[in-house]
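Z., the sequence and structure:
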Amino acid sequence: MEQKNFMKINLKIFQILISLLFLYVGCSQFENPTDFQSEQSSSSLELKKGDTAKNEKKLRKFAKAMAKALEDQNVRQLLKRKIGEKFDGDPEVLWNHIKNQKINNYPFRNLIDKQMDNEFKIGDIEEIALLNISIPVHFEDWDASSPILVAYKPLTIDDMEAKTIYAFDSSHKEYELDYQKAPDFPVMVIGLNERVDPETLELLYDPKTGKGVNNPSFLSKPTTSSDPKVYFEFFRTDDNRELWPDGSAEILVKVLTGLGKKWEARWCGIHENGWYQKHVFMFYYHLELGRYLSAGFLEDDGGGTMSFSLSVDKAPFKASATFNISTGDDEMGTNELIDMTHGPLNSNQNSHNDFYTAGDARFTLWWVPNDQPVIFNSGFESSGIWEIYQGSSCSYTRTTSQKHSGDYSMFFEDNSPANRVCAVQMAEQIVLPGQLYKAQGYYYHNSGERQRLILQFYDCNNWICEHEVWTSTDPSWNRISVEAIAPWNAVRLKVWVGSHTTTQSSGYWDDISAELLN
């Protein structure tokens, strides 16, 4: 069994190396493509197989002790509170953060130590630096009024190959749970934290934004107005993903430019047990780093490390770089070499489709010029972009009858007093969480009651919140505006114009825009 598992690890290493090497081939459609050749590869496991098996046994012993300790109401209440703080974005807590909490006037670790047998004591268990306690599914359903099952994560088998996870109740009765399919009840899981640095125990991921705190700071701001903004989106597939005992996914991105600059960036899944994100801002790309960029995407599971070197030697570029990736990481896919000087001109379409299905996820890497406006066709000088929302009673028409600027404006009319939303909406646009946005427009009243301008933010699933401002009934052009900060989980915005739900109205709109203020 040990030899079989070792062979699987080495096979996985080989597969990852080959697929990452694929980053740099098949780029003949670009002018002067850069060829990347594998210069050297070597693997070194940080943990010996014997150490891994021993640590898995420690997790098993700790899970049994924790299951017994859950008979104490004070233990349950402590864990419910600390896990609920979600210090790293997932419902989990490091043992190191709670081991000295007092329960019945004794440190928590002492209470657990009493439940350990002679093979391991609590000090032996605490040699596992990233010892973690989580309730990855149905955490909100547990009110801490009674004990729950405590499972432990297997370490000697790859998580994508595991079929069973074992759990204990407070009487030490053992249960087999499906590793691939989440249970419909809360289960506590003892495992290794994937969002904390093993040396410093500092967070690798920002739980408020889902973005890695170690993302390169030199790419956080543009150096010129033409520096492209790079985004990516990804979503979960049914066949291979971060499984329920591991909580939400951690996304690791390895980047190398044609001039040899390299870095990595990290994100964590915002939604529990789901990878789906949309329009996630990665960085500003500085064109002086090189014309070409390549990236590899992995689901970060940690474990031992392996290193590989890549070299670039094609005029005018010559560079090399060495990366480290973990043997436990699950590859999501790679993109071909990208010419950063030829990106999309419109941020709501993917002019360059880098779609790869690698079992775990399909992703798109795309980019827009930094000086690109948030809203296109804001003056209605061309058709399209805007669309009716709700009902046949409202309509809009491009017209030359009135205009604030240019040749056209939009005439919007609501002919029904029915209690329903009648509005025209802008196609969705990218936003950056925590930033201040302003929507504004010019309105010329024609008849009936007032109309409104609405700024609405969306997360990955549906709208979060909206902010609105009402027009006047003045038959002349008047500017109206509304400002709001994008929520931490916002990924896009829409700008709407509409009427009241119980009135009729008509008027002209022009020069509608949305902009980032800071």
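The radius of gyration is 27 Å. Helices lie at 2-21, 49-69, 73-84, 95-98, 108-114, 122-125.

Let me know what you think.
H.
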